[in-house]
Design brief:
Layout lengths: L2 H22 L16 H6 L8 E13 L3 E9 L17 E7 L12 E16 L2 E15 L2 H5 L17
Parallel strand pairs: 3-5
Antiparallel strand pairs: 1-2, 1-4, 2-3, 4-5
Protein name: Membrane protein
InterPro entries: OMP_Slp (IPR004658)
Keywords: Signal
Length: about 170
């Protein structure tokens, strides 16, 4: 076969493969509004008044659910989001904690400790509290919508293929 044709077929195959991988990744689930701020919970906690009435799209890992008389509060350790708005658990810890205020009763079974969540909502102030014995300022988010991620959704669009150069062996 002609070398030019082989090269063209190889480039087409690589391009098609990359498009197929990109097509597998979920699209972002929430569209930012004009008042959406791209800042982390720990930054908001430092000066909550500066971000009053802003919208956020935040995600992270559930710490606990507290059900109150007329609403529920979900404490979350915030993490950066990937292009599909899935939380990216970082090795250097989270972006700070926040409290997602949800109307009505939230079943803690549906939001177990450690589960991953992304939400959109409105910053509605901050509350002083504690993490262990340490004082902490929790930004409060009045939740408009939320999504708890399944393991399959977290892995969607991630390639199982890895490339590398090295030496390997089996010791018996």
């Amino acid at each position: 076969m002609n070398q030019h044709i082989t090269h063209t077929l190889l480039r087409s195959a690589v391009a098609t493969g990359l498009l197929a991988l990109a097509a597998c990744a979920p699209a972002p689930i929430y569209k930012p509004s004009p008042s959406t701020v791209a800042t982390a919970p720990n930054i908001v906690a430092q000066s909550p008044d500066r971000f009053a009435d802003a919208d956020v799209i935040w995600g992270g890992q559930v710490v606990e659910v507290r059900n109150l008389a007329d609403h529920s509060e979900v404490e979350i350790v915030g993490y950066p989001l990937d292009s599909s708005q899935r939380p990216k658990l970082a090795n250097n810890g989270g972006w700070g904690r926040f409290i997602a205020v949800m109307p009505g009763y939230v079943e803690s079974f549906d939001y177990p400790t450690g589960s991953l969540i992304t939400l959109t909502g409105h910053l509605s102030g901050a509350r002083n509290g504690k993490v262990g014995e340490a004082d902490y300022v929790f930004p409060l988010v009045s939740v408009a919508q939320s999504h708890r991620w399944t393991a399959d959704e977290m892995n969607a669009g991630k390639s199982n293929v890895s490339f590398g150069i090295g030496v390997g062996g089996v010791i018996r």
